[in-house]
Every structure is written in structure tokens, then in C-alpha cells.
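Ticket reopened. Same input as before:
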Amino acid sequence: MSRGKFITLEGTEGVGKSTNVTAVVECLEAAGLAVVVTREPGGTELAEAIRELLLGVRDEPMANMTELLLVFAARAQHIAQVITPALAAGKWVVCDRFTDATYAYQGGGRGFDDDVISQLETLVQGQLRPDMTVYLDVSVEVAASRIAAREHDRFEREQLEFFRRVRARYLSMAESQLRYRIVDAGNDLATVQADVRAVVQSFLGAGEA
Ligand code: Z5A
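Engineering reply: fixed in the latest deploy. New output:
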């Protein structure tokens, strides 16, 4: 049985990743593929518990190193329990965020060197990397306005300047790595979903599948 493919969605908070996962899954299932949908941080019971630690707002500030190691601890569990078994069984895995979020948030946002993140990436993931990444891009002001009405988690309480650094890091990865497909998430939802479907169809049709 051939290994499945690993597709990730990335972007700053509120850009529409969760909303557009559905469009990706519909395309893949229409092509007859078995799909596992998951997310980070999280994706297993234990990793979801780590997610609560990461996103929860507490009086005690979380050290940046604690945050970085928790992100990778959750990922190690997620890979072992969900991602690797699914890919080995020939299923396609669609994941709302993965390690590019670590380069963007802990690297661009918090200031960790890429070398530090890269060492943890190799330790935790071995050779595992996404086959394609859909990057949804919109200004941080528009993204913030989309989630303005809901209660903000620990990350969402950061200043706009933090999210500008995160977005800049995403854009530099998206422009330099072939596996990235950039979608303008500033358009109306129907247009964004059509664009997401188009990049998935193109990936399927280009023999990359
Ligand atoms: N994090 C990290 O630091 N390091 C890591 O390695 C990883 C994660 C993996 C939680 O992630 C936090 O973890 C995240 C980074 C950190 N923190 N932040 N910020 P998450 O993915 O769960 O959190 P999130 O990015 O805040 O998810 P979200 O708020 O659910 O955003 P989204 O999935 O991109 O957006 P959405 O829920 O699909 O849409 C938001 C709203 O906008 C919703 O009402 C939609 O109906 C609406 N929407 C969507 N698209 C449109 C368009 N095109 N027009 C108008 N309205 C739209």
C-alpha cells in the first residue's frame, strides 16, 4: 500500500483555516481518497490536554521555552498516535496547523532561532514533513476583526505587532518553499473556498498525488 499524503493549512489567527478544512476534505473525498482530519496543537486526548495548557489564560506567565517544548510534546504524541499510522495505512492527513506554525509563532513571534526549532523538528519528526501546505493570507487587522467577538485565548491576547511578525515569517516561508500554495483569504468566503479547491485539484492533477 502506498503512503498517504500530508496536507497542512496555515495562517494567522482567524484567517479561516478551520472553515476551509472542509473544502480540502471535500476535494480529496470526491477523488476517492480516505481522509483523516486533525489539528495542532491537539489531535489526540493527551495532545488536546497540552493544547489547553498552551491556550489557557493563567496568572503565572508561560516561559517561551515552556511554550516551545509543549508545542513539540503535543506534536510527538500526535505524530505517534494519528499522523504516522494514518499515512502508513494509505490515508491522507489534513491538519489545521503543523510545524510551520512553530517557525511562525515561536520563531517569528517569540524570537527563537530557526536552528533551535529545526533541531526539535528533526528530533520529534524525523523525515516527516507536509507534502503540501495551503497558506491563507490576510492582513492581521482583518484577521483580528473576524475573531473580535469571541473570548480570546492566551495567543489571541498578543498585540498586533506580534501577529505582524508571525505573518511576515509565514510569508517568507510561503515564498521560498515549493510545497506552499498561497490563497488570498481577504476575499469573500465563497471565493476563498473556490481558490482552496483549485489548489487541491491542481495538487491532485499534477501527479504530485
Ligand atoms: N500555535 C503555536 O504557537 N505554535 C504551533 O506550533 C502551533 C500552534 C501548532 C491555536 O491554534 C494557537 O496555537 C494559535 C497558534 C498556536 N494561536 N493563535 N493565534 P488554532 O489554529 O486553534 O487557533 P486560531 O488560529 O486562533 O484558530 P481559529 O481562530 O479557529 O482561526 P481560523 O481557523 O483560521 O479561522 P476560522 O475559525 O475558520 O474563522 C474565523 C471566523 O472568520 C469565523 O467566524 C469564520 O466564519 C470567519 N471567516 C472565515 N473566512 C472568512 C472569509 N473569507 N470572510 C469572512 N469571514 C470569514
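The chain has a mean pLDDT of 96. The first strand starts at residue 6 and ends at 10. Please confirm and we'll close it.
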